[in-house]
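Blackboard transcription, Thursday session:
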Amino acid sequence: MAATIHDIAKRSKVSLATVSRVINNAPHVSEKLKQKVETAIKELNYIPSAYARVLSKNQSNIIGVMIPEITNPFFGEIITGITEVADAEGFNVLLVNTDENVEKEARSIRILREYRIRGLISTPVTGDNKYDRQYVNLFENMNIPIVLMDRGIKNGDFDGIYFDDETALFKITSTLIENGHSDIVMLIGIPHHIVSQRRVRGYGDAFEANNLSYDKKNLIPCEFSIDSAYSVIKKLIQDNDLPTAIIGMTNMLSMGCLKALYEYGVSIPRNISFAGYDRLEIHDVLNMNLTLAEKDAVEMGRKAAALMIDKLSGKSVPNKTILMPELFIRGSEKFPEKTLP
Amino acid sequence: MAATIHDIAKRSKVSLATVSRVINNAPHVSEKLKQKVETAIKELNYIPSAYARVLSKNQSNIIGVMIPEITNPFFGEIITGITEVADAEGFNVLLVNTDENVEKEARSIRILREYRIRGLISTPVTGDNKYDRQYVNLFENMNIPIVLMDRGIKNGDFDGIYFDDETALFKITSTLIENGHSDIVMLIGIPHHIVSQRRVRGYGDAFEANNLSYDKKNLIPCEFSIDSAYSVIKKLIQDNDLPTAIIGMTNMLSMGCLKALYEYGVSIPRNISFAGYDRLEIHDVLNMNLTLAEKDAVEMGRKAAALMIDKLSGKSVPNKTILMPELFIRGSEKFPEKTLP
DNA sequence: TTGAAAGCGCTAACAT
DNA sequence: ATGTTAGCGCTTTCAA
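(Written on the board underneath:)
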């Protein structure tokens, strides 16, 4: 098996305590012994056991990170931001993926607890009311600092970093209204999900602020996936039921909408207008002149990790940071010249 | 702190051994005691410590996964495949990201060793000859099963799952040649990097097989990034130096090329032809009729995890699996009607 | 400056 | 079927 502190002690003829001091750069070791120990460490290719260390110190240095969709670039960027800060502060990150699945979430939390994480940074699956109370309990039982990202828990009050989804959708919708739109379709995912509720409110408020009302049929439920959004828009096209504008409420929903529109040759903004929420890699690459309210996910990750580290060092001021997405007007919001037949 | 096995034993008035048996579903526990213990576990919200368990068993159940680019969807899919299999087999995954950086790689390996991983699944940064020997030593010193993905190590001989890059590029290039091309630019990244070498060979072999020779200037070095590829192609456009066809040798390089072409209105395949290696989300979404040799990265992840688990269970047959990417001919390979001015 | 020894939470061999 | 106990590899008093 791997070398242990005993092997090092024996080979360098010092005590365990001295070896431990050398490993941890602790004071009170003579240069001579230090050299001997370091030589032995190299020769035996020794690496301390995280397990023994945690056990004896009764404390890990792991921050748990739980995200719902590892292949979504939004979360990829968040992870980048978190690890950047955690690395710099000497914390390890244990990453678990829940696939938007409550059972996987429960299993993931168990694993994180087995590893005695110091704090949890999470975008919980919740949003389905049924599980809310349960998760609030789960989190509170963990008795460690919690930082939520992007989504709150309905019946809980947790610190975290959020985006102002409501204002973002208000701005997006207002922009479209100012361009003459009132027939604006928005795919809203699962209606009672926490992700959709604030955004729908922003949408509605924009109409209200302009003394307009909207057709409730324009808020169309679907799954939060590219495929589902694609199917919905495809059907609108086939039924000749397209509005004058579409809002992509999340990056995945935007991609599904665009996929259908492109497949059927519905051109933006010649035949239909479009505005979306969150960045889109396809836009970054192809410069499609899409009007987008963009979120800085890397920054969200950094802020979440920084907040966690504050909490772990006792600076435990309550903190809910609201980040404001930036709206880029690029042309796709313009009223269409002529809608398709 | 968290409850321990002692707390459970005390509360349910049994011995530590009995609690341990219940936790591990071991035999020889009466139903009555089992109930008592389970009740106490629930009441105290007890979760066993991974650290104590690993320490006493002298063995972790962690598979280390080291990848170089967490935001690259290719690796995102690989992770999905690995965790799918690892979860099913009861292994935990510790994921580290090296950012294609040798120092981060070294630090990551140290962390993985601290956590006493049972095996390592990795796409090493290597490719720079300078570090090869060093990594071979590092890996061999770890004394655990190693499974490499996608890239080998030049001076080492490790089991793993690879794609047949050479044949893929041979097919891609041949397809273009058959369509009348001979002026074919390929961005090759860093020339001595292991990622480019086999692919360049496939490119060259296709010319040879057709009794043609190619202009060495058409193999253009760059960084392995969207931005770098973008700059190179942009310069070709501005210098009015475009070939009749471009090959995107990786997904990132493809995106950079496409970005520049789209920005300058160079249309595919009207003004220039294109063929690429690896899937492209922008293509999946927008159906750009790109001819692509596509890799199944999720499958690579599954196979890597399965191979690792075989090794861990002693079925240690040497195994280098070569996956064949599938070539989809979609039209972008056709010879351009007219190249731009 | 150095070392001895107790203890962290669990498993497993052994005893009852 | 149940309990006792000796480690696992490290840290941390406390003594010397």
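Lecturer's comment: Residues 14-18, 21, 27-30, 33, 52, 54-58 of chain A lie near DNA strand C (CB under 10 Å from a C1').
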